[in-house]
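SEQUENCE, STRUCTURE TOKENS:
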Amino acid sequence: MKYLFRKEEIIAVEDKFGDDLLFEALSTPCKAIKNEARTFALQPGELYYNVLFNIDDMKTKGILEYQRYCNKALWDDMLSDFLDKADDVDREEVERSVGIVMFATATVLIRSGLPKYTSIASVLIRRTEEHLPDFCDTLQRKFESGFSIIDKVAIQKSIADYLESERNISAEIEQTWDELVYSSTPSAQHDDIDEYDVPQLKIASGKKTSMIIVLEAMYKAGWIVDANGRALTNRDEAINYIMDKVFGEPVNNIAQLVNAAKDPTRNKDGIEKYFNELISASKKK
């Protein structure tokens, strides 16, 4: 997986602005969408910076000029910038990332409750729909979910106050980056720098099938749901996602492993053996 910024830059944004209500509101949908990507995605700190950069640019240009810019050039400018920083990745995922930034910017403007920004928000959403017609419903659900966990009055006041202020958070972030001491050269910023994507856990030797059987039971019991709390509908996809993202061990033959484990001619002890060990361990003091 590749990202826009270097690891030090991402961490610096999270350290300095992680407690900001807007950062919190953007983080949930950003992470949910990032988990569905394969080659390129935005980290919460990257989304936060790009949204604030757009807003700060709007504050500098003025509403009418920025609206014209959104209508004519913003998409192309962002896409060009993202592609320059993310070589050898799926172009569609880069385009989706541009759409995420534009939709998020529109969402922030709408959440301010200030009518004078509605026209810009409408242009941003329309332009996103033109380029990503099948993705906007997903974005709407994700961002509604993200903002729903934040106090509505508090986030509205925070956004409105910022829009009406002279503060420039994107410039503050850039100043923070200027003061960083990097552990890698600039050319390395395209590498897979996200430590969160490096599995920190492994399955014990000989327990891979056991883990899959337990995960299947959890899936059937409804203990695993999607990011919006809804029931999952694809067992193999759900189990493979956990095996890949958590343990770094993607599995392409889940059905074969499960069927073999349940086949009494191959497994004389039956499927219960996979759970008896857990039950026994849980009773230990």
Notes: The chain is about 65% helix and 0% strand.
